[in-house]
Write a structure and sequence with these properties.
This protein is of the alpha/beta class and about 775 residues long. The protein contains 27 helices and 13 strands. The protein has a five-stranded mixed beta sheet with strand order 6-5-7-11-10, with helices on both faces. A two-stranded antiparallel ribbon has the order 1-4. A two-stranded antiparallel ribbon has the order 2-3. A hairpin with a 3-residue loop joins strand 12 and strand 13.
């Protein structure tokens, strides 16, 4: 192995260097804007420089407020979080302030670009006149050169694998990438990877693993992210922030207004903002988890806890939305509360800005985190009073400020959101009563996931999660016991805050096993892993300590220790399962990362074109008074046109034809409660049939998210196919202009009425009979 002998250094910028950098970026940005207005190609300079420029204010803020300045990794973390929260606040102020001044389209390019420039210059001026100036950031890269090179090349391998998959349908590149990541994880359990490389390893592994699925499409990937994408797109089109109108999504500017701002200022596509910029930002969350774990439990615990979080299926397979982005602010606030301290005005300003970032990202994460902080503070105070002295930095001020500010903001921005949050405890209580009286558990609770597995690999996936949950429980119990014993002896245990916070979070996780807390159980699991992932590694190490103590009691026995490589192997298996590699190698993967025909939430350009056709070429029209999804209940919308589809394709339509914004009602053809199609209801509206949703039944029933080939044919035969491509066909029962035409992207409009029998589903070109 080659060695790097001199890679521990400090990045010293100084006021002159800082001024050169900031003013140079601003100059290049505005020149690229000017050249673009003249029609001169800038080859992406505005996108690149504008993207960097958007987060310069965050770095200046981190310097001014003196947070995270001890290492390069933590400085990048706090710069990104503070910058993101600042951008959300600026969009709010621009929309309100410029609107009052009569500025039309306050969230258009010129107002936003001028505001960003002015903010950057103001923060630069404040930084240069302060006593400390811009900090010297320590960067430590001492270690093996090949290891660092391998880490830096991971994003390239990820992008290359996705590009090959998109262009040829071959998953060879995906296999190579996942195998290399697995090798990196296994190496991390050895001395080949030095501890100072752990944060770099965590970031590049997390970023590259999530990037591969997001680069498979020019669209966002996931469920709720579809409605956020639509909301952000409206902001870009309208040039304003319709807060209070159109649903609770607009009460979350970090995931609606800020992506719109990034797109408007830089000129990059909105989907790129979500699938690249937001993927990069979310990839900092496991890095923050690592730093928390290293500070309290040690570097190895921080490393493997962070990797467990990164390989959890929700962290690994979706475009980051409200919950995932909110977790960035959770880890930053924990770092500030527990280690940085909130003892002066600068730290208090940083804490308040991060609190706003959390509130502006996700209401449920805000509520869960606030309640957990409250319970943890109360628990530590109780232990200190009744058991023994405990050293901790938690305060009731933290949850009170968080929950109070959240209540005030959501009350102004979306009363529907407040009603939802207030109703969570009542709903949970009603579900518990129903469970006790009738034994009925709502779908989406944790217990309903057990028994749904149909293959040995799915069983293995479940067993790994059960194992990790047991380790988490053991780790929390062990640390709680050890700290309680020390407190009882008067030893005043230190760094107890994470353990105290883990207890109520594990309680939320346990409750989600039988109750839906406004979130399905797998989403609750992912949310609490921001803290509990570390306790899986703590539990493993604690079990190892327990084994060592037991074996040490027998003089003739050899001391038995569990190697970290065993935990790394479990993580590699989890990665293979959740990435789809294991299913592709041993069976058929239902993940688009390894199967181009997978029926998941990675939507192709052809599928999006079909949804756009519904909007452009039918009698679907915008609603006169648009409302969000969470405002539909109890409202009467006459003359809505039903669009029937499978429940996966349903998610795509949320980003293009959301109910409430158009005179349309999207209806799932089949559900868990209605596993067969009710053909009687298909006498009006349209049916959106995705090719990848069709499965050969071979005499067996297919799962509710799929259609059998017989079902697909039955939908089409008695009705008119009005759109057909290689990806989607749309069937309409209503007769009107163009109702009997099949529009094919390759051959323009084809009249299929003369063709004998129903037109073929997927064949492009002229109509032909079904084979």
């Amino acid at each position: 192995m080659g060695a790097i002998h001199r890679r521990r250094f400090r990045v010293s910028v100084g006021n002159v260097g800082l001024g050169t950098t900031v003013l140079g970026l601003l100059a290049v940005f505005w020149v690229s804007v000017w050249l673009g207005s003249l029609g001169v190609p800038t080859f992406g300079v505005r996108i690149l420089v504008g993207g960097v420029l958007l987060f310069v204010p965050g770095a200046l803020l981190a310097s001014l407020l003196d947070v995270g300045t001890d290492t390069g990794g933590r400085f990048a973390l706090y710069s990104s979080g503070l910058g993101l929260a600042l951008l959300a606040t600026l969009t709010l102020l621009a929309n309100a302030g410029l609107g009052v001044l009569g500025v039309e389209n306050p969230l258009s390019f010129w107002p936003l670009a001028v505001l960003l420039t002015a903010t950057t210059l103001a923060l630069f001026a404040l930084t240069t006149v302060t006593d400390g100036g811009f900090p010297d950031v320590k960067v430590d890269l001492v270690g093996s050169a090949p290891v660092l090179l391998l880490l830096f090349v991971l994003p390239t391998l990820s992008a290359l694998g996705a590009a090959i998959m998109r262009s040829t349908g071959s998953n060879v590149g995906m296999y190579l990438f996942v195998v290399v990541v697995a090798a990196v994880v296994l190496l991390s359990a050895t001395r080949v990877v030095r501890p100072n490389h752990y944060p770099v390893l965590v970031f590049f592994v997390a970023f590259s693993a999530l990037l591969q699925v997001n680069l498979l499409t020019n669209h966002v990937v996931g469920n709720d992210i579809q409605s956020l994408y639509f909301s952000a797109g409206r902001i870009v089109e309208m040039g304003e922030w319709p807060i209070g109108r159109g649903g609770s999504a607009y009460a979350l500017p970090v995931v609606t207004a800020v992506p719109g701002m990034v797109t408007i200022v830089t000129g990059m596509e909105l989907w790129t903002t979500f699938t690249v910029v937001y993927v990069l930002l979310f990839s900092l969350v496991p890095v923050g988890i690592f730093y928390l774990g290293r500070r309290v439990f040690g570097a190895r615990v921080g490393l493997f806890g962070a990797l467990f979080f990164a390989f959890y299926h929700i962290s690994l397979t979706y475009t980051p939305g409200k919950q995932l982005l909110a977790e960035l602010f959770v880890v930053l606030l924990l770092g500030l509360y527990l280690f940085e301290g909130v003892h002066d005005s600068r730290r208090k300003a940083a804490a308040l800005l991060l609190v706003l970032g959390l509130i502006f990202s996700h209401y449920a994460t805000t509520l869960f985190f606030g309640l957990a902080l409250l319970a943890a503070t109360f628990g530590l105070r109780a232990v200190g009073r009744f058991v023994g002295p405990v050293d901790h930095r938690l305060s009731f001020v933290y949850p009170v400020v968080l929950l109070g500010t959240a209540t005030a903001w959501y009350g102004v921005a979306s009363q529907t959101l407040v009603d939802t949050l207030v109703g969570i405890p009542t709903s949970a209580f009603d579900q518990v009563v129903t469970l006790l009286n009738e034994g009925t558990i709502s779908g989406g609770a944790g217990v309903t996931y057990i028994g749904q597995q149909t293959t040995p690999l799915e069983d293995l996936n479940l067993y790994i999660y059960v194992l990790m949950t047991v380790l988490i429980a053991f780790g929390i119990a062990w640390r709680t016991f050890v700290d309680a014993v020390r407190a009882r002896r008067g030893e005043e245990p230190a760094r107890t805050e994470l353990t105290a916070l883990a207890v109520p979070l594990f309680g939320f996780l346990s409750l989600s096993y039988v109750v839906i807390l406004n979130l399905y159980a797998d989403r609750v699991y992912q949310m609490v892993l921001t803290v509990l992932a570390l306790f899986a590694a703590v539990g493993y190490r604690s079990f190892d300590d327990a084994l060592g103590r037991v074996s040490g009691r027998f003089p003739t026995s050899r001391s038995f220790r569990l190697p970290w490589s065993l935990f790394a192997i479990v993580l590699v298996v989890l990665l293979a399962l959740n990435s789809g590699l294991a299913f592709a190698a041993l069976a058929e993967s239902e993940s688009a990362t390894f199967n181009a025909d997978a029926h998941d939430s990675v939507f192709s350009a052809g599928e999006r074109a079909a949804a756009d056709w519904l909007l452009d070429s039918t009698d679907i029209r915008p609603s006169s008074t648009p409302v969000g999804e969470d405002q539909l209940e109890g409202r009467d919308f006459p003359n809505r046109i039903p669009v029937f589809t499978d429940r996966t394709s349903y998610q795509l339509l949320r980003s293009i034809l959301p109910t409430g914004y158009y005179n349309v009602e999207t209806v799932a053809l089949k559900t868990d409660y209605q596993p067969t199609i009710d053909y009687e209801q298909l006498d009006e509206g349209y049916v959106f049939v995705r090719k990848n949703a069709i499965r050969d039944a071979n005499g067996r029933a297919v799962a509710p998210e799929y259609l059998s080939r017989r079902e697909a044919n039955a939908i089409a035969e008695p009705r008119n196919v009005v759109y057909s491509s290689g990806d989607v066909r749309i069937v309409a029962a209503r007769y009107g202009p163009g109702a009997n035409q099949t529009r094919d992207p390759a051959t323009s409009v084809v009249d299929c009425r003369a063709a004998e029998g129903p037109p073929t589903l997927w064949r492009t070109g002229a109509c032909s009979r079904e084979d």
